Automatic annotation (TrEMBL):
<dbReference type="InterPro" id="IPR002881">
    <property type="entry name" value="DUF58"/>
</dbReference>
<protein>
    <submittedName>
        <fullName>Uncharacterized protein (DUF58 family)</fullName>
    </submittedName>
</protein>
<dbReference type="Pfam" id="PF01882">
    <property type="entry name" value="DUF58"/>
</dbReference>
<feature type="domain" description="DUF58">
    <location>
        <begin position="44"/>
        <end position="238"/>
    </location>
</feature>
<dbReference type="InterPro" id="IPR036465">
    <property type="entry name" value="vWFA_dom_sf"/>
</dbReference>
Length: 294
């Protein structure tokens, strides 16, 4: 199956166009709950009761049995889908190999794809953006018009400041009162963090929480140019250079950090997908949506 090159994300500002290409041929849905209704996949018959739609009556069976029977089918149950976007300053980190793409661009593209899948399934979906110490909500709703509202909010998101503090995020968890599927995209450079505490709390509330951790390939293999200097965009605690003498320590610290992140997600039953923003977005999305093995 062919995958969309991530350069497509860099060369268009139309999220709807990117979604169309990324989702082409992607067969995954968001959730697997089943409930009986007037869906497509036939399940069984039951006796007619007042209020049932006449179009669901099996007239051939009625002629043979001298009573009315209604065809039942199984369909996906509707859950609320919530998208959480980390738009803190560190998400502005660009790719060193693909011009025009950064972590935020990749995150909002993949979240937009999840929103489009939810819309196709008839699920309500909402958006939570974390940026510059604030929480911005787009309430959950259904339909194509709501999808356009969510895409517009994602497009307007800009990386700034730090994540909201723990008290602000804890007070904001009211958005997921009923069982929800929650998809969070971040670089997880701060862990534990207010976001990690909120995601753990949501999982403890019995929500289906799935986390996507995005990094650049340069962050993964420490291939930063020796001649450039770097500043922490969220703390601004001095300027750093990645000389050859520092890279081994960086690799070791990075591995220890993400080993802790992975272990804590596993402990809290939160599926974690690690990806580089240079990878094909369709492949990353497929891994993120894959139902975890039990």
């Amino acid at each position: 199956m062919s995958s969309v090159n991530p350069a497509l994300i860099a060369h268009t500002t139309r999220l709807d166009l990117v979604i169309r290409h990324v989702l082409a041929g992607l067969g995954h849905g968001i959730h697997a709950g089943r409930e009986r209704g007037a869906g497509v996949e036939f399940s069984e018959y039951r006796s007619y009761v007042p209020g049932d739609e006449w179009r669901r009556v099996d007239w051939k069976l009625a002629a043979r049995a001298d009573r009315y029977f209604v065809r039942e089918a199984e369909r996906d149950s509707h859950v609320a889908v919530w998208l959480i976007l980390d738009a803190s300053a560190s998400m502005a980190e660009p790719s060193r190999s693909i011009e025009g793409i950064d972590k935020l661009t990749c995150a909002r593209t993949l979240l937009a794809c999840v929103a489009a899948i939810a819309q196709r399934q008839g699920d309500a979906f909402g958006l939570v953006i974390l940026s510059d110490g604030k929480v911005t909500f787009t309430p959950a709703n259904r339909g194509p018009r709501h999808l356009q509202r969510v895409l517009a909010q994602l497009q307007r998101a800009t990386p700034a400041g730090q994540l909201p503090d723990a008290a602000t995020l804890k007070a904001s968890l009211h958005f997921a009162l009923s069982p929800s599927a929650i998809y969070a995209a971040s670089d997880l450079l701060d862990w534990p963090s207010p976001l990690s505490l909120a995601l753990t709390r949501l999982r403890q509330m019995r929500h289906d929480v799935r986390v996507l951790c995005l990094q650049t390939q340069a962050e993964i293999d420490a291939s930063f140019p020796d001649t450039q200097a770097y500043r922490d965009p969220e703390h601004e605690e001095g300027v750093f250079r990645f000389g050859a003498d520092l890279k081994e320590g960086y690799r070791r610290n990075r591995m220890e950090h993400f080993d802790r992140v992975t272990a804590q997600c596993r402990t809290n039953d939160i599926p974690l997908t690690l990806a580089a923003i240079e990878q094909a977005p369709g492949d990353v999305l497929r891994r993120w949506l894959r139902r975890p093995s039990r």
